[in-house]
């Protein structure tokens, strides 16, 4: 009872330990001697496998419910009174949470000399293991895995587990202590293995199991381990080929070599390991086809060949496995291994398989009818391949199917109620990026309960699917681009109150949301973008951390949204309200949103100064140390850009303030934003000189994955996956004065520089590695520097309408540009049709002949004006046309992205 009082038992597993129940031999976890009633064993282990979503995730993906685990495991302290149990020989406290600063393994355990079995693995203890543990001479089983380990001589050990991924090796340099354990049958060292040259630790004829996973370097051979049953060398830095000598370990049942740098082909000698049950070679550089000798491994139950370079036809792989292996195989994973070809009827021979993972390959064709024979199939992943046809013709009978992933293929067809009727065990359904149409009756109720649903790009509309009401276990809900033309029904938010991820974007959903995103909603990510939602912005639950309402018709002020009194701190990190009809001033309530990292308010109708909580900018942003992207472009914001933006927002990589009414100077404090990758303050009223401190923007070459709209060549280009390669400074269309500072043109990592439409003077200096230069419509003078011809990656140049003179430098790039990029100067030479005279005179080139009317530009101007009023003006005037046009563009972009994927 003293021992219990020192424990934390959140799940009340020790309810039977009480004074009313005096026979402690009947207590939970207690085992006594049949005759003497001496307490012999304490089993207080917490099994973590129950807290994985299921066996599939435990085996392959390790999706662990840590919160539920914490609510079940023991914690607190281990009382010294435990040493009073003089007959205790078995103590298992593993996989519990005895966490605390500096909490180490109690030294009194070294006095419990009757112990033969001690398991303290995964208990959260910290620090070196007390040397007293070495006094436990009767120990046969010792597991101290995931604890930094240093122990003494324990010659009777049969099982030794010291695995630890979290700490530096603490084993002594002299490893003879391991050699003294001549009875050892199980050895688990993981990354506690010390560095030594020729150890004898593996020269054990009795060893049956070796787990050296995560040791990073192994400098020893396996020796003559004829009794070896299990060998785990995964997660090391093993290089070279798989030794053929592995084929001599004919007693092996499990062989795991995953997550290394092994190369070459899979040796045919592995076909000698006829006792193998599990073979895992995944995450290596192995290439070539699977050797036919593996057909001899008739006892195989689990195979993982994922993330290899097989370059093999999938039917060839199945033909090797089918004759002998197929009857007992339960798991086959060959993901991202360059498989091609079509599945054949050989797949029907794998009647006991429960897990089949073929994702991210190039397998095509329709699923064979024999798929329907896989009655044990529970987890199927065929995503990101080239499959076609209607898979439900083959899958409709698989009643044990729990997880079905067929997203990212060319599947198509009509899916009816009967096709889904037998899938009664289905919990995860990943089917986005195909061309399905779901045709079910208005009263259809599925026979399954899903936790994950993504049917993006299916045709479900026009009405909102009412069968969603029956899915009360959903956590991930994706119905993007499904042709819904309806409003969100009143029952929707209450029925899906347990959902964590919601995506209804790219539909035609209309109506108002009102207060429905308030409690009891627990959704963390909400994407309702690219719809026709209107009215006021909704109130928000404090649980939401990502909200995208962009490209809708929300109107009025943001005041109620931002300034609503909250009972709990708002967790929102990402907010996208771009392209709506929001108006008025931006409210002064940003201090309530301290976790915001990315805010997009562009393309609305805001007016006036930014609020005091922004300090013109929101002052609350000063506290957002993790802010990466700040985009306030295309509004009507005024005032100056405060100096604290550069002083406080030191993690910002993208600062976009274009198309506002900001005035004043560009402060030197901007240069303190050393991580800045994109600076866009174009189309404002900024004045003064360009700061000469831009050389401090040292991280211009750092990569990131944030999407931003860069205005180059007079048009917007959206950089998504390639933004990590893009750096840009755009100061165009302001009132900047003075010379172009050398520090900005010397930025070797800068790709795009736009200083056009200012009042800059002086010469053009040398350039870095620019790909786009626009200095047009300034008052620059002097000659074009010869070094500009060295910019081999220059794809855009505009120096027009300045006071430049002299000969245009010759080079591989400069003469390829159109003459319009250099007109309005006193220049000569190609690409201008003006020869440089021998007396050094130059000419002003304004058109094709330098005088008179340039009818080409006249006609071009007329054509532009007519085209603008025919095509663009209706989009500006008619909102419904504008929505339809941009929805069309979104649809084309989505198709292109899907094709590219």
Automatic annotation (TrEMBL):
The keyword Glycoprotein applies. This is Uncharacterized protein. Residues 341-512 form the Disease resistance R13L4/SHOC-2-like LRR domain. The chain crosses the membrane at residues 855-877. InterPro entries: Leu-rich_rpt (IPR001611), Leu-rich_rpt_typical-subtyp (IPR003591), LRR_dom_sf (IPR032675), LRR_N_plant-typ (IPR013210), LRR_R13L4/SHOC2-like (IPR055414), RLP23-like (IPR046956). GO terms for cellular component: plasma membrane. It is a single-pass type I membrane protein. Pfam families: LRR_1 (PF00560), LRR_14 (PF23598), LRR_8 (PF13855), LRRNT_2 (PF08263). Belongs to the RLP family. Residues 1-32 form the Leucine-rich repeat-containing N-terminal plant-type domain. PANTHER family: LEUCINE-RICH RECEPTOR-LIKE KINASE FAMILY PROTEIN, LRR RECEPTOR-LIKE KINASE. It is found in: Cell membrane. Keywords: Cell membrane, Glycoprotein, Leucine-rich repeat, Membrane, Receptor, Repeat, Signal, Transmembrane, Transmembrane helix. SUPFAM superfamilies: L domain-like, Outer arm dynein light chain 1, RNI-like.
């Amino acid at each position: 009872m003293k021992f219990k009082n020192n424990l934390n038992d959140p799940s009340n597993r020790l309810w039977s330990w009480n004074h009313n129940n005096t026979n402690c031999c009947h207590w939970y976890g207690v085992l006594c001697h049949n005759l003497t009633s001496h307490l012999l064993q304490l089993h207080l282990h917490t099994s973590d496998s129950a807290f994985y979503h299921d066996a599939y995730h435990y085996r392959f993906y390790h999706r662990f419910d840590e919160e539920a685990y914490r609510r079940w495991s023991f914690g607190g302290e281990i009382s010294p009174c435990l040493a009073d149990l003089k007959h205790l020989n078995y103590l298992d406290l593993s996989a519990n949470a005895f966490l605390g600063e500096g909490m180490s393994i109690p030294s009194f355990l070294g006095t419990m000399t009757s112990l033969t079995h001690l398991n303290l693995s995964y208990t959260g203890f910290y620090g070196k293991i007390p040397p007293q543990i070495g006094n436990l001479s009767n120990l046969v089983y010792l597991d101290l895995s995931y604890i930094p380990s240093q122990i003494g001589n324990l010659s009777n050990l049969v099982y030794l587990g010291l695995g630890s991924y979290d700490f530096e090796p603490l084993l002594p340099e002299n490893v003879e202590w391991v050699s003294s354990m001549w009875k050892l049958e199980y050895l688990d060292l993981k990354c506690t293995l010390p560095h030594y040259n020729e150890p004898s630790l593996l020269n054990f004829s009795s060893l049956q199991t070796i787990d050296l996973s995560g040791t990073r370097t192994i400098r020893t051979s396996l020796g003559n381990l004829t009794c070896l049953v299990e060998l785990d060398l995964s997660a090391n830095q093993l290089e070279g080929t798989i030794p053929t000598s592995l084929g001599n370990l004919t007693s092996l049942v499990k062989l795991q070599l995953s997550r290394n740098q092994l190369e070459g082909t899979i040796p045919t000698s592995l076909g000698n390991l006829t006792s193998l049950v599990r073979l895992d070679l995944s995450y290596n550089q192995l290439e070539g086809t699977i050797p036919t000798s593996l057909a001899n491994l008739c006892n195989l139950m689990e195979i993982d060949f994922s993330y290899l370079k097989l370059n093999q036809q999938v039917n060839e792989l199945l033909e090797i496995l089918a004759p002998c292996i197929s009857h007992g195989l339960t798991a086959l994973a060959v993901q991202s291994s360059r498989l091609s070809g079509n599945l054949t009827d050989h797949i029907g021979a794998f009647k006991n398989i429960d897990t089949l993972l073929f994702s991210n390959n190039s397998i095509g064709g329709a699923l064979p009818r024999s798929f329907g024979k896989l009655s044990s199939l529970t987890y199927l992943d065929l995503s990101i391949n080239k499959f076609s046809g209607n898979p439900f013709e083959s899958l409709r009978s698989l009643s044990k199917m729990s997880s079905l992933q067929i997203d990212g293929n060319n599947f198509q067809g009509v899916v009816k109620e009967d096709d889904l009727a037998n899938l009664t065990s289905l919990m995860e359904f990943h089917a986005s990026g195909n061309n399905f149409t779901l045709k079910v009756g208005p009263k259809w109720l599925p026979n399954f309960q899903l936790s994950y649903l993504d049917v993006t790009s299916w045709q479900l509309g026009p009405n909102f699917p009412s069968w969603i009401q029956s899915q009360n276990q959903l956590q991930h809900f994706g119905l993007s681009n499904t042709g819904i033309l309806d409003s969100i029904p009143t029952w929707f938010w209450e029925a899906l109150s347990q959902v964590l991820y919601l995506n209804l974007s790219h539909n035609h959903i209309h109506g108002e949301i009102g207060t429905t995103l308030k409690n009891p909603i627990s959704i963390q990510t909400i994407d309702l973008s690219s719809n026709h939602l209107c009215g006021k912005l909704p109130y928000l639950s404090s649980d939401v951390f990502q909200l995208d309402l962009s490209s809708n018709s929300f109107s009025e002020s943001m005041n109620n949204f931002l300034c609503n009194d909250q009972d709990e701190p708002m967790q929102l990190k990402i907010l996208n309200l771009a392209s709506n009809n929001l108006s008025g001033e931006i409210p002064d309530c940003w201090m309530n949103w301290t976790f915001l990292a990315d805010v997009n308010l562009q393309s609305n109708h805001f007016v006036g100064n930014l609020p005091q909580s922004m300090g013109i900018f929101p002052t609350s942003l000063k506290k957002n140390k993790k802010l990466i992207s700040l985009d306030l472009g295309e509004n009507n914001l005024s005032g100056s850009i405060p100096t604290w933006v550069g002083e406080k927002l030191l993690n910002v990589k993208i600062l976009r303030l274009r198309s506002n009414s900001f005035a004043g100077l560009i402060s030197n404090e901007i240069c303190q934003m050393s991580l800045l990758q994109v600076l866009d303050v174009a189309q404002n009223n900024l004045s003064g000189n360009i700061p000469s401190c831009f050389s401090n923007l040292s991280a211009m070459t750092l990569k990131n994955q944030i999407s931003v709209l860069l205005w180059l060549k007079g048009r917007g280009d959206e950089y998504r996956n390639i933004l990590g390669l893009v750096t840009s400074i755009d100061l165009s269309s302001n009132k900047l004065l003075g010379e172009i500072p050398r520090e900005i043109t010397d930025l070797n990592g800068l790709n795009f520089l736009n200083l056009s439409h200012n009042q800059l003077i002086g010469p053009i200096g040398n350039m870095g590695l620019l790909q786009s230069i626009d200095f047009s419509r300034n008052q620059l003078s002097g000659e074009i520097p010869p070094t500009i011809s060295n910019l081999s990656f220059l794809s855009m140049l505009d120096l027009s309408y300045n006071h430049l003179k002299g000969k245009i430098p010759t080079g591989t790039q400069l003469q390829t540009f159109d003459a319009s990029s250099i007109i309005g100067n006193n220049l000569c030479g190609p690409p201008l049709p003006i020869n440089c005279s021998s007396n050094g005179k130059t000419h002003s080139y304004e058109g094709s002949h330098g005088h008179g009317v340039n009818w080409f530009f006249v006609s071009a101007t007329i054509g532009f004006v007519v085209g603008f009023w025919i095509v663009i003006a209706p989009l500006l005037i008619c909102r419904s046309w504008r929505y339809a046009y941009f929805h069309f563009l979104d649809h084309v972009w989505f198709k292109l992205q899907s094709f590219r994927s």
